[in-house]
Design goal:
Blueprint: E1 9-10, E2 14-16, E3 22-24, E4 32-33, E5 44-47, E6 50-53, E7 58-59, E8 62-66, E9 80-84, H1 99-102, E10 112-113, H2 116-126, E11 130-133, H3 142-154, E12 158-163, H4 169-176, E13 181-185, H5 191-198, H6 202-215, E14 219-226, H7 234-248, E15 254-258, H8 273-285, E16 291-294, H9 299-302, E17 304-305, E18 312-317, E19 320-324, E20 355-357
Parallel strand pairs: 9-11, 11-12, 12-13, 13-14, 14-15, 15-16
Antiparallel strand pairs: 1-6, 2-3, 3-4, 5-6, 7-10, 8-9, 8-20, 17-18, 18-19
Helix pairs in contact: 2-3, 7-8
Length: 362
């Protein structure tokens, strides 16, 4: 008999099918489960005629990070964020950079237990401006993330989703209604890449991007990990950046990040800095105002410039902010032009530190 983990919590977004199977409607995979079976994400499980989220209240660890690590460059720059994830994932990326967490099939890796209220209180105590659901995709632990977001909002703490955006319309609506910011991982711009290297499809991700940008108040940024020979060709980068500019708008920040060999693609070399610079140039030529490079030292690729007077208003090297020239409302101090994003009083940057935090169960 399948053992039900102690951390199980009633899951939502499912229906019974005429053949007796249960269909999970959380994401486009629509896993159809017999009693005792788990979905591809591994953390959603059928028990009788109910769905369980087996990782509610359990985390792979908590850390205080710079917000730039999510990466978010236009969301309270320089602030700190309490980051955590659980286990499992609803994609099967062969290049996963957090495979030890997202591919985990061992609930024993979830060492830290914390209620939504405890997480919100820990963020306040640590002086973190926001809480980030990250490391693995928060879509698969949506109930836990949403309850935590509600607890955070009650205490004035912002919430951030770092996600691949592979989610169905109904849960997507409820999930992003509770998020203040999101970085959506647009892994490539061909369906062939998604099918072969992630086991998913491109279309639902594009739908999520459109939805977040045009139907919510959630601040949106995008990251594309460039993998040599897989998604870094000029034609694909041209198509991707033209789509972002045309469908989402020129002010949506786009991060091109460097791949390093990992998981099932350890035979592919790391992304050269020149590839990221080329991708950034293509994006800028196609009208995007804010295109960044990540996982490399690149002052130009990390700096935010005023769209009106071209003054460098935030100079960055990695997760370090070297100079800051915006007022409390996010306007350029040189010419007064407002920059898109979410801003407040800047009193100094948290910097590139990563501070582990242990939470007591509550």
């Amino acid at each position: 008999m399948t053992r039900v983990p102690e951390s199980s919590f009633p899951g939502r977004w499912w229906r019974m099918l005429p053949d007796g199977r249960m269909q999970c409607d959380l994401c486009p995979r629509e896993c159809r489960l017999h009693d005792g079976q788990r979905g591809l994400c591994f953390v959603r499980m059928r028990e009788g005629e109910r769905m369980l989220l087996t990782t509610y209240g359990r985390s792979s660890g908590f850390c205080i990070d710079p917000i730039e690590k999510k990466p978010l460059n236009h969301f309270f720059p320089g602030s700190s964020v309490l980051s955590f994830g659980t286990a499992g994932c609803n994609l099967a990326c062969k290049f996963c950079q957090n495979w030890d967490i997202s591919k985990s099939r061992e609930m024993d890796t979830l060492m830290d237990a914390a209620s939504p209220e405890a997480i919100a209180q820990a963020a306040v105590a640590a002086g973190a401006q926001s809480v980030a659901f990250t490391y693995n995709d928060p879509v698969i632990f949506a109930e836990y993330a949403m309850d935590t977001a509600d607890a955070c909002r009650a205490r004035g703490v912002k919430t951030v989703a770092v996600t691949a955006g592979y989610v169905s319309p109904e849960p997507r609506r409820e999930f992003f209604a509770r998020m203040d910011a999101a970085n959506v991982d647009l892994k490539a711009f061909t369906d062939d890449f998604y099918v072969k290297l992630t086991g998913a499809r491109l279309g639902p991700v594009l739908d999520t991007l459109r939805y977040v940008k045009h139907e919510t108040d959630c601040w949106l940024e995008i990251t594309t990990l460039l993998i040599p020979g897989r998604n870094d060709g000029d034609d694909e980068l041209d198509a991707l950046t033209r789509w972002v500019a045309g469908e989402l708008g020129r002010d949506v920040p786009l991060h091109f990040s460097a791949f390093h060999p990992d998981w099932k693609m350890s035979d592919v070399g790391p992304t050269p800095k020149g590839t990221l610079v080329r991708a950034r140039d293509i994006g800028l030529r196609n009208g995007l105002r804010y295109v960044y490079t990540g996982n490399v030292h690149d002052l130009a690729g990390g700096t935010t410039a005023c769209p009106a007077c071209d003054t460098p208003v935030i100079a960055r090297d990695g997760y370090r902010i070297l100079a800051y020239a915006l007022d409390d409302d996010g306007c350029c101090r040189a010419c007064g032009t407002p920059l898109p994003g979410r801003y407040g009083r800047f009193t100094g940057a948290f910097g590139p530190r990563r501070v582990p935090v242990r939470l007591a169960a509550a």
